[in-house]
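Meet the record:
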Amino acid sequence: MGLFSKGSSSAPAPVSTTTQTTSSEPPAFQVPFIKKGLEAAERDILGRPQQFFPGSTVTPFSPQTEAALTETERLALLGSPNIEAAQDLAAQNIRGDFLLRGNPFLQEAVKSATRPMTETYQQDVVPGIDAQFSSQGRYGSGLHNLARQRAGLDFADRVGDVGSRLAYQNYANERARQEAAAAAAANLYQAGFTPAQQLAGVGAAREGLSDAQLQDAIMRFNFAQQEPGIRAREYGALAGLGGALGGRQVAQTLTPVQRGNPLLTGLGAASLGAGIASNLWGPLGAFS
């Protein structure tokens, strides 16, 4: 057997347990203050429920706004007779109701414009022709009748010209109104929605106020549900800071015990000692 044969035993080396206890406590002079702080926190946080703002968080409508909404609602429900009248008038213009056949005043306008011509023809022209042919003794002759016929045609032409001008002017004016009414039809159609839009605006304003009041109630409900937890978290945060009042931390370290060949143990200790000495008194040691 060799010198080191005893170290080859296969039995497991026994293990020893080293227990280290670490205590962390605040300085003694701080302990009374920390305890007082925790007591105050318990009294002021856990023992004093938080309160939501007691008043409403919603701004109500002013009297002026409420009056304006009420009047707008009333007018919107009544509708707009002016818009309806404008739509009816536009429809008549688009249909051409005021053109020649639909204008009862056009004939009267023609009569008024041609009245002087008629009077001149009846009072001057025709009597003058008759007097001329009568003085010549040819009253009732063919030439006499031809002269009166020509004078009548001339009178009819002049009256017709006046009527044509007035009719054309009336037609042109009404056509312009027709086109303008057609161009305004889309705007008049949109204007028909004005009462409904105003009523919708009133409803939106009232719904906005109701929604704000609902949100106020929801916030109050949620606050009541969350308030105990808020206090608990605040107290827990302060208690966590005050947890330095005490506490023990225990650490256990398992250290194997060397029980092999004594010679090997001695050589290891000698080597360790030599290494320590070299570190302390060597060229780079602390005591060199």
